[in-house]
Amino acid sequence: MNNDILKTLYSEEDIENACKRLGEQITKDYQGENPIVIGVLKGAIFFMTDIVRDIDLYMDIDFIDVSSYHGGTQSSGSIELMKDVDIDVNGRNVLFIEDIIDTGRTLKYLEDLLSDRGAKSIKVCTLMDKPEGRVVEAKADYVGLEVPNEFVVGYGLDYNGKYRNLPYVGVLKPKVYSNK
Ligand code: XMP
Ligand code: MG
């Protein structure tokens, strides 16, 4: 699996440092609150489990699953809700934990969904931001690492369901795409 990687963009240490920095900031900003922290499956699984342990607050934890990519490296444009949250968000402070913001469509969909349900506040913490990919206006409140306009894998992010378990974030060799 490691042999398929052309270059490492962010090492395990880079990711760990980003989690610590964001965790501290979130701890300060939410002092005295009891937010619902919602991990966006599946890409954010590792980031979610790491960052919540860097946040010193009482919180509820939940997960939501939306699908937009359908296997390739291009966003399809339409978002589908695959698994909803279990907790009632009405009147609550919601913090989404995302792996990456690219076109911005997923973020917009999630914000609209929970604001319609009466969330008191909605903020977004993303490990990675790919600003050049934006198609709709979307901005994360907490950004760990910025990435160029390339398809990245690892630390939760997949290509055709694979590479999620790489401990770092990297770019695949072109032959991996052409072998598809
Ligand atoms: P949008 O385009 O809606 O994207 O902002 C959000 C979701 O798309 C996936 N995504 C990626 N997945 N490598 C991946 O493995 C990438 O470079 C990439 N860019 C976007 C991801 O699931 C994200 O939550
Ligand atoms: Mg995702």
From TrEMBL:
* Key words of the record: Cytoplasm, Glycosyltransferase, Magnesium, Metal-binding, Nucleotide-binding, Purine salvage, Transferase
Q: Where located?
A: Cytoplasm
Give a short account of what the protein does: Purine salvage pathway enzyme that catalyzes the transfer of the ribosyl-5-phosphate group from 5-phospho-alpha-D-ribose 1-diphosphate (PRPP) to the N9 position of the 6-oxopurines hypoxanthine and guanine to form the corresponding ribonucleotides IMP (inosine 5'-monophosphate) and GMP (guanosine 5'-monophosphate), with the release of PPi.
Q: What is its EC number?
A: 2.4.2.8
- Would you tell me the protein name for this molecule? Hypoxanthine phosphoribosyltransferase
Instruction: Give the species this sequence originates from.
Output: Apilactobacillus timberlakei
Instruction: Outline the extent of the Phosphoribosyltransferase domain.
Output: 8-159
Q: What metabolic or biological pathway is this protein involved in?
A: Purine metabolism; IMP biosynthesis via salvage pathway; IMP from hypoxanthine: step 1/1; Purine metabolism; GMP biosynthesis via salvage pathway; GMP from guanine: step 1/1
Q: Does the keyword Magnesium apply?
A: yes
Could you tell me what reaction this enzyme catalyses? IMP + diphosphate = hypoxanthine + 5-phospho-alpha-D-ribose 1-diphosphate; GMP + diphosphate = guanine + 5-phospho-alpha-D-ribose 1-diphosphate
Q: Name one Pfam family in it.
A: Pribosyltran
Write out the similarity annotation.
Belongs to the purine/pyrimidine phosphoribosyltransferase family.
- Cofactor annotation: Mg(2+)
Q: What class of enzyme is it?
A: transferase
Task: Name a GO molecular-function annotation.
Answer: glycosyltransferase activity
* Gene this protein is translated from: hpt
